[in-house]
Amino acid sequence: MPKRVDHEERRRAIAEALWRIACARGLDGASLRDVAAEAGISLGQLQHYFSSKDELLVFALKYLSGLAEGRIRTRLMRLAAPPAPRDVLRETVMEMLPLDDESRTGNLVQIAYFVRALHDERLRDHAKEGVPALRAFFAGQVREGIARGEVEASRDPDAEAMLLIALTDGLTTHLLLDACAPEEARELLDAHLGRLFTP
Amino acid sequence: MPKRVDHEERRRAIAEALWRIACARGLDGASLRDVAAEAGISLGQLQHYFSSKDELLVFALKYLSGLAEGRIRTRLMRLAAPPAPRDVLRETVMEMLPLDDESRTGNLVQIAYFVRALHDERLRDHAKEGVPALRAFFAGQVREGIARGEVEASRDPDAEAMLLIALTDGLTTHLLLDACAPEEARELLDAHLGRLFTP
Questions:
Q1: Does the interface predicted TM-score (ipTM) exceed 0.85?
Q2: pTM for this predicted structure
Q3: Closest alpha carbon within chain A to B29
Q4: Which residues of chain A have pLDDT under 70?
Q5: Judgement on whether residues A116 and A34 belong to the same structural domain of the protein
Q6: Chain B window 59-118: which residues touch A at a Cβ cutoff of 8 Å?
């Protein structure tokens, strides 16, 4: 099915053009025409694949999430088996934070989407879609930590998971603004995890 | 100096028009012309006060910060004197979170500004301006907690301050997306503070 593959490749190339714009100048006011120009195709060709900016954003975001998940999986596979829950949480958050160009791009596209989602209920549903899965994953690690005697049994895994997600998002904001240095973000994350996991 | 007062009032009225747009549909793509229309004045009249969208955003943000500081001060004055550091931190964060229309508006304008600041170094310097002052205020409360024997002396006040700021920002994101309910945000904040302050 070479034709199908071509279509998917074209969609990805368009999404990548969107990312480049997101990184260079942000998506505020960027039109489908701008994206088509960046991708080196006509607006009509682009519209063959995406009929609206929101549709393109959703695709670009899913594509980015897929890449991020792949990077997280690669990181986790490098941990000794079975991996310690604390290491799993640390490596996952470290990969989510905008500490390199790829995750910085991912975060910028996500923020562009987030800002649009604030004023569009349909987009909002989509924007918060990933939260429950991430929360369940983090909560599972905290539960595993409790089972291994590394986390106090009085901790609520679900609450700890949401605290860690909120902390990650807050650190992301400050890293993107250069209000927090990468080294400091790492130390703050370790301080937080150090209090969740008993030595 | 009635003329001067009028000028300041006019600037505030324009800023308030910007806020209404920020709340209703976001500032993505909103022009000075849109703001002038919302304020019921001509574009020329608006430009007499603000020559660019960024200039207006800076003013609107400072105006909002001033109002937010006033609300925080009012909340803190209601606490028994001398107020306990834990209560000061709790009340301050509660006022910063988008839990009512006014602070929701403040957060939406701040995010609109933040998104522009990501791609503009000059704006970025301005966007992160408030962080050191807030951080110093929070760190001072943690230090006071240590002095009162309510916080373990091993805690780093400056790191704790930044963790609390990051947590506040992360909870803000999830509250704005309705990915986190107000009651849950309160519980998470209390859980975090409960671990910083020993009973």
A1: yes
A2: 0.89
A3: A29
A4: 1-5, 199
A5: no
A6: 108, 111-112, 114-118
